[in-house]
Amino acid sequence: MTDSPQAIDDLIALMAKLPGLGPRSARRAVLHLVKKRAHLLIPLADAMQQVGETVRECVNCGNIATDDICGICASERRAIGEICVVEDVSDLWAMERSNQFKGRYHVLGGTLSALDAVGPEDLRIPRLLDRIKSENVTEVILALGATIDGQTTAHYIADQLPGITVTSLAQGVPVGGELDYLDDGTITAALKARRAI
Amino acid sequence: MTDSPQAIDDLIALMAKLPGLGPRSARRAVLHLVKKRAHLLIPLADAMQQVGETVRECVNCGNIATDDICGICASERRAIGEICVVEDVSDLWAMERSNQFKGRYHVLGGTLSALDAVGPEDLRIPRLLDRIKSENVTEVILALGATIDGQTTAHYIADQLPGITVTSLAQGVPVGGELDYLDDGTITAALKARRAI
After folding, report:
1. Which end of chain B has the smaller Cβ count within 10 Å, N or C?
2. Structure confidence by residue, pLDDT tens digits, A145-193
3. Is A21 on the interface with B (CB under 8 A)?
4. Which residue of A has its CA nearest to B43?
5. Under CATH, what is the fold of the domain A80-168?
6. ipTM here
């Protein structure tokens, strides 16, 4: 951009790297920030600084936290003995929003993938096996995506855990979903797992 | 969000205020930032800090600048005597991208609007009239939006400037545009302004 200040160009280039923003929307966002300097730009810079300085990974489960141990692992109100294995922190958040699971989590940080050469030691799988021993875990809930890689990872983990109950989330019709819009695979899964009412 | 660190929640709430991002995409962006702390989060915080400290409005034209006078107003290569009046800094940037106009700009900061009670003194119109006198301006190009408010503003400014050439951008078929997709108003305008070839 000719003649626009270097600081602005730099900020636009960085903002454009955020998921969901491209060069055009980054420009729009930066102009908005400049106009709302006191109410948005300065607080946002401070909040990022704050997150950059304080937020790290929980050494136990991989969740993001401001201490070495995250709020969930540290909480005494969370049931021990149950671990819900998720791919990413965003999945952990999604589980927490449903407000149903009262145990603890383990964030793998991805899925096994032959294509991308991701093996068990690239994920937090060894740490999961340690935790299962040390925390007297009796049930492992695999809340992994219903993708090929997600299911491969689920099978791999289940194979490592003889003698422990390993479950996975049910597959079926989403609540509020219309059959007409569902893919064949989901309908097949829902039909196979049909229940008496 | 239960159990996610306060610093993260604060950052998500601020990010969600950016145009183009909602609560869901703000969450996604923040997770991305946390994962790319060294490459994105820290540089972004610094760039925002930098912009917050250095960027201000050009006292002459209203463009954003790091000095009291913006690069365009300060440049000796820009023609004096021609002022292009735009609504917003983003419009100035759009004009600059076309790389055609070699004069100087004046950013109004909005358009006159009876509905939103925006009068001439709420915009940078008095300053424009001052500049036209002091800079010996001979042509004012009104590059305002083809909206009701934009056109009202254009007429208001033209009325204030007897004896000066006031022009506005041509209306017509956009380059690369197909007639089939154009609205009636644009086709009417393009037909009225037809030229011999």
Report:
1. C
2. 888 999 999 999 999 988 899 999 988 888 888 888 888 888 888 888 8
3. yes
4. A14
5. Dna Topoisomerase Vi A Subunit; Chain: A, domain 2 (3.40.1360)
6. 0.82
